[in-house]
Amino acid sequence: MIHNSLSEKKIIKIVGKLEVRKLMPGSHLYKRFSGKSIGDAAKVFATHYSDEAREKPALALMAVILSIHRNYTKVVEPRTDKIRKTNFGTFADLRDKTKDINTFSAFCEMRATEKYKIIVRILDVIDQLKERVKETSDFEILHQWAMTGDYKNYKSDSIGGIHGIGLATFQHLRMNFGADTVKPDQRVKEVLKREFELQLSNDIANIEAVEYIAKVTNQSALYMDQVFVNYGSGYYIK
């Protein structure tokens, strides 16, 4: 456990070092908060993390799936930036854009058959969720799902069990739709290993470590996720 490896004082010192560093061009939030420190940018962004999902839930969903095994800043963000300028936003819109692989590929400017299949499966689950919950808005349907999701048993979840969705993607979706949690992606794990010198055996342990660090520093897990992601993406050589 992390509390056996690091004192609270040491954790606070390490986090403080990450927070004061400036965003770098490779940092995920650089375009939005150029010139800001990682901590300042993460604080603002974490507060508004679900805003896009509330306004355009289909875009928030698609952005997560497109980012699987892809560089978000270089590959995904340019495509989603174009889509943001359109009226696309509802799950019905996404259904229309996934009626076949060619339509989907032309829309997102990426031929990604596996991602297409994942999105189609998620939309089927969303239809099932609509039948079971009282909420009618697209965001609220997945918000209820996100708030009850269990990352320790994600494979038994209706969305987490879809082929191609790993724990990081499961957590990323939950975060987009309102859950205060963290995704164990490459950058988060690198920061835990390189800055905190933690040798953790699995993704669950990485999530628990970040949650503990968030608790020690009196911050949200989502905020800590953004600090780690932006530090790792900005300061580690790709």
Can you give a write-up of this model?
By secondary structure, the chain is mainly α. The chain is built from 15 helices and no strands. The protein has helices at residues 2-5, 8-20, 30-33, 38-47, 51-55, 57-66, 72-84, 91-97, 101-108, 113-132, 138-148, 167-176, 186-194, 203-216, 221-235. Helix 4 (38-47) crosses helix 15 (221-235), helix 6 (57-66) runs antiparallel to helix 12 (167-176) and helix 13 crosses helix 15. The longest helix has 20 residues, at 113-132. The protein is globular, with a radius of gyration of 18 Å. The model has no long low-confidence stretch (mean pLDDT 93).
Q: Which keywords apply here?
A:
single chain; 238 residues; 0% strand; 15 helices; globular; mainly alpha
